[in-house]
Specification:
Helix content is 42%, strand content 16%. It contains 17 helices and eleven strands. It has helices at 5-12, 18-25, 46-49, 62-67, 85-98, 110-113, 122-137, 153-156, 165-181, 194-203, 214-238, 260-283, 290-293, 305-309, 353-366, 394-412, 455-470, and strands spanning 39-43, 103-107, 141-147, 187-192, 243-255, 315-328, 334-336, 373-378, 417-423, 442-445, 450-453. The structure holds beta-D-fucopyranose. Beta-D-fucopyranose (FCB) is lined by residues 45, 48, 192-193, 196, 249, 319, 377, 423, 430-431, 439.
Length: 471
């Protein structure tokens, strides 16, 4: 995909200037975002920010292994130091609180908290206890993801998500965490983006562990969803007061033409991106069209699995970034047809807020049991520079404003959306793209670990302050 997004943006948004954006960032008076109970927060993930990969008994994860292989991550970057959050967490919580952010979504590093025999690692557990206690002292709502991709390497050595046993090990891990952390977690998410774990990890090899076979992807997905299903009742038993859910990344597929073949291609794009995960969770069955797209990839499903996977949820976390324009590949699938002249980000991803609204309103029609929704990630990367102590992340300000407007539209159309987390609190290790892609509303200078609040974060803070004052 094209990467020179800034040039496109400049031509599309000539009127955007510091002043006009600042004035217009605040939502209109009739926006549902003014409701005090609409939670506004920021998100991060363990491997992307913590660093300290060899400290206090942390075991290797699949991302330590994967990022050490030359050519897997841009510039050979790894999460070994990242934002050094493991040591700087106190200052980072202060920063979060100083911005007035009401919620914080973090993830726990599984390899930090228990060993291969399931023995708890007290030092690792204490880190999360201290962090969560401090967040609660600050009055911040805590969303904790159990699995944001850093699988212990010893489990991958035994087949990882291709091995059904990993789902049982995940339930043990969920049991330990919910016994230890009950009372400090407002909402538990079992998995972050099983699509990425299964497809990018086992289907095309773009992410750890780097395997590439469609049959692996569907089997890994089944075991991931099963892990989720095993964990939910455990979390309910150990920590009844908290909410339990899962986080899915959703993608909008649009047809390149009105032809029936292209419309079918767009449908299949969304089947593999959305229905592959949401149908088993909310309907208790895999979409059959998936196996038209990837023939012969039906996973091994045992009796009772689908009931386990489709147990009721308290919330569904939704991550949204961009759309994909597709055409028929002439056979039974789709191919990407990148549009020209559209606004893109540093990732090359198209800025397309309507996709978020349209997917949300579509899900409400498709799933009669759609749980309350939190947007658990939304944001964009730009090549942000610090100039005289400031970061003018103009495109991000406009991006956030337009996506928040899309959320407001979906709420007004009847979708129960209760909050929104910016991705991300700070620049961090962006997986296969390393440190080059900056998604934070806070800038991180990786040579000094200095944090600089970007203009976008200042404006979000300003809005939150205004909202608080009005309440
Ligand atoms: C999502 C991931 C998150 C981050 C953003 C940009 O897929 O959940 O960790 O990398 O993309």
């Amino acid at each position: 995909m094209a990467n020179d997004a800034s040039a496109v943006f400049d031509t599309l948004s000539p009127a955007v200037s510091r002043g006009s954006l600042a004035d217009s960032f605040t939502p209109p008076a009739d926006s549902t975002l003014w409701r005090k109970n609409f939670l506004l927060g920021a998100a991060t993930a363990s491997y992307q920010i913590e660093g300290a990969v060899n400290e206090d008994g942390r075991l290797p994860s699949i991302w330590d292994t994967f990022s050490a292989i030359p050519g897997k991550v841009l510039a050979g970057d790894t999460g070994a130091v990242a934002c050094d959050h493991y040591h700087r967490w106190e200052a980072d919580v202060e920063m979060l609180a100083s911005l007035g952010l009401e919620g914080y979504r973090l993830s726990i590093a599984w390899p930090r908290v228990m060993d291969a025999a399931g023995v708890p690692n007290r030092k690792g557990l204490d880190f999360y206890k201290r962090l969560l206690n401090r967040l609660k002292e600050k009055g911040i709502t805590t969303f904790v993801t159990l699995y944001h991709w850093d699988l212990p390497q010893h489990l991958e050595d035994r087949g990882g998500w291709l091995n059904r046993d990993t789902a049982y090990r995940f339930a043990d891990y969920a049991d330990l965490m919910s016994r230890e952390l009950a009372g400090t977690v407002d909402a538990w998410a079992t998995l972050n983006e099983p699509w990425c774990s299964a497809y990018l990890g086992y289907g095309n090899g773009h992410h750890a562990p780097g395997l590439a076979d469609d049959r692996f992807a569907t089997q890994a997905m089944h075991h991931l969803l099963l892990a989720h299903g095993f964990a939910v009742p455990v979390l309910r038993a150990n920590d009844p007061a908290s909410q339990k859910g899962i986080v899915a990344n959703i993608g909008r597929g649009t047809p390149n033409s009105n032809s029936a073949a292209d419309q079918r291609a767009a449908h299949l794009f969304e089947v593999q991106h959305n229905a592959w995960i949401l149908d088993p969770l909310l309907k208790g069955a895999y979409p059959q069209d998936l196996f038209e797209l990837w023939p012969g990839t039906e996973p091994l499903v045992l009796e009772g699995d689908m009931q386990t996977i489709s147990a009721p949820l308290d919330f569904l976390g939704i991550n949204y970034y961009f759309r994909t324009n597709v055409a028929s590949d002439g056979a039974h699938g789709f191919r990407d047809v990148p549009l020209e002249g559209v606004e893109r980000t540093q990732m090359g991803w198209e800025v397309y807020p309507d996709g978020l609204r349209d997917l949300l309103t579509g899900f409400k029609k498709t799933y009669h049991n759609l749980p309350p929704i939190y947007i658990t990630e939304n944001g964009m990367a730009s090549d942000d520079q610090v100039t005289d102590g400031h970061v003018e992340d103009t495109q991000r300000i406009s991006f956030l404003k337009r996506h928040l407007a899309a959320v407001d539209q979906a709420i007004k159309a009847g979708v129960d959306i209760r909050g929104y987390f910016l991705w991300s609190l700070m620049d961090n290790f962006e997986w296969a793209f390393g440190y080059e892609r900056r998604f934070g509303v806070v800038h991180v200078d990786y040579s000094t670990q200095k944090r600089t609040i970007k203009r976008s974060a200042e404006l979000v803070a300003k809005f939150l302050k205004e909202r608080k004052a009005r309440a």
